[in-house]
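Quick start: load a record and inspect it. Here is Phosphatidic acid phosphatase type 2/haloperoxidase domain-containing protein:
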Amino acid sequence: MPAFLKVFIESASFFGNSIPIVAVLSLSFIAYFVVSGYIKEAGIFFLAILSLLYSVVLKNIFKIPRLDSYAGDPTKLGDMYRFPSSHVIFYVCFWGLLFFLTFKRDVFGSGLAVYLLRTISVYHILFVGISRIIIGAHTVQDVVAGYVFGAIYLAVLIYLSR
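Running the structure step on this input writes:
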C-alpha cells in the first residue's frame, strides 16, 4: 500500500484518539444547535456523544481482550477490551447523525459547509474501520460489530429526531 494512502486511512482514527478535540468539536456543535434554536437536535447530538459509554458497556459485556500486537493504554476507559470497536460505534453515531442532519435544510442550510460536513462525515465513517484494523487495534469482527452496534444506536437517534 502506498505510504500516502496508508496515512490517509490511518488518520481516520485520529479524531477518536483525542479527547480534547472530541470535546471541543462536540461542544461547538451543541452550542451551534442551542444558539440556532435546535434544542431537540442538541439533545440528540448529546446522546450521540454518549455512544462512547454505550461502547464501553458493550465491551464489558463481551470482555474480549485486546490483541497482543496492540500498544494501547489498558488503563484507559474502553481500552482494556477490543470487541466491539468503540471508535467505529462512536464515529457511526457522531458523524452519522451529523450527516443525517445535513439533509434537514433548516438545520445547516444548503451552502458549502453542508457539503464539507457531509464529506468529512463519510470519510470518517468509511475509513475508521479500515484504520482500526491497519493500526492493529481491532480485527475485522470487532469493526463489523462496531458498525452493527453503531447503526442500531444511530437508528434510535434518527427515530428520536423525527
